[in-house]
Design goal:
Alpha-Beta Plaits; 4-stranded antiparallel beta sheet; binds (R)-mevalonate; Ribosomal Protein S5, domain 2; 6-stranded mixed beta sheet; globular
Length: about 350
């Protein structure tokens, strides 16, 4: 058996605008998907998922195309999760030149599903790593990022950006601009995440911004202003000491201001929600340096910067917040667990 894990991520800056070629800065966070893979003697794939907000499920199929029989959990969620797992299996078979390879796969994840924390990317990245290693092939994190991107691209009908998969595979802070992805230095940023228990519809939210941007100049300007904020945020990170034990207060304060601006602009683009706004305001009132939604929006998660316990406590008592937790910057991306 081979076990690999990969982290989820938050967007420090730049979601949605990244779709139009502006830069974005996602950061990997210490919440991981863990995928265990055992090669089989036949070409069947058996998938068991735990902790995926699905009450767990088990699916078995034969050959290369997942035809998933009835399972005792909400079918659309299972279909969505299986779409990513099928695509990861296809990438692993291709990388190892083993089209008939069969696997027993177990997925465990402590990343909320579809909530803006890159849960699917983490499952795909860890799955490709574990399945290829199980077939005797060791891919570099960059190769895994590329294959995981192709997998997500296929599942999401060409709508995926490279941000989630690259960040999950490489770890740390990342800069994404179009097809150009690289890791950048960042001090240990004290992230706090608030989760409303829901999930936005990424496709619909991206389509909504697209039509707003086509219809109104203000929306096109808003998208390019988000790009300006990202560039300023990047400059702040580039000037910071990446080896500092703690980021200086002035840095957190400036990054937090830009996160607040970024949230306001995302709200103007119509991708926030009542629960996301309540959590953002609760985080600010609890003393965080700044807070914004992360990911596509519409529901899901916010990210705040606060090294103290105050924001997490404040969020826990906020109506609409189902869970609040710390998630430090994950310096390691995909890794072999055993
Ligand atoms: C979704 O996590 C982030 C978006 O920018 C879409 C994407 O980049 O693929 C909204």
């Amino acid at each position: 058996m081979t076990v690999s894990s990969a982290p989820g991520k938050v967007y420090l800056f730049g979601e949605h605008a990244v779709v139009y070629g502006e830069p974005a800065v996602p950061c990997a966070v210490e919440r991981r998907a863990t995928v265990s893979v055992t090669a089989r003697d036949d070409d069947h794939v058996r998938v068991r998922a735990e902790d995926l907000s699905l009450n767990g499920f088990t699916v078995e199929y034969r050959g290369s195309t997942g035809d998933h029989p009835d399972v005792d959990v909400p079918a659309p969620l299972v279909e969505a999760a299986m779409g990513y797992i099928d695509a990861a299996v296809a990438q692993a078979r291709d990388a190892a030149d083993a089209p008939d390879a069969g696997f027993d796969i177990t997925v465990e994840s402590d990343i909320p599903l579809g909530a803006g924390l890159g849960s699917s990317a983490a499952v795909v990245v860890a799955g490709i790593d574990a399945a290829t290693r199980e077939l005797g092939v060791e891919l570099s994190p960059r190769e895994i990022a590329e294959r995981a991107y192709r997998a997500e691209h296929e599942v999401q009908d060409g709508q995926a950006s490279r941000a989630d998969t690259f960040c999950s595979a490489m770890g740390g802070a990342v800069r994404v601009e179009g097809d150009d992805c690289r890791t950048i230095d960042a001090p240990p940023l004290p992230f706090v995440i608030g989760f409303d228990g829901g999930a936005g519809d990424t496709g619909a939210l991206v389509a909504g911004v697209r039509s707003l941007r086509e219809e109104y100049d203000f929306a096109a300007d808003t998208v390019s202003t988000i790009g300006d904020i990202v560039r300023r945020g990047e400059t702040l990170l580039a000037e910071a000491d990446p080896d500092a034990d703690e980021p200086p207060e002035e840095l957190l304060s400036e990054l937090g201001r830009f996160m607040n601006f970024n949230h306001g602009l995302l709200e103007a683009l119509g991708v926030s929600s009542r629960s996301l706004d309540s959590m953002v305001w609760a985080a600010r009132e609890a003393g965080s340096y700044g807070a914004k939604l992360t990911g596509a929006g519409g529901g899901g998660c916010i990210v705040a910067l606060d090294p103290t316990p105050e924001t997490q406590t404040g969020l826990q008592f906020t109506p609409g917040c189902e869970d609040a937790f710390r998630a430090e910057l994950a310096t390691e991306g995909v890794r072999l667990e055993e």
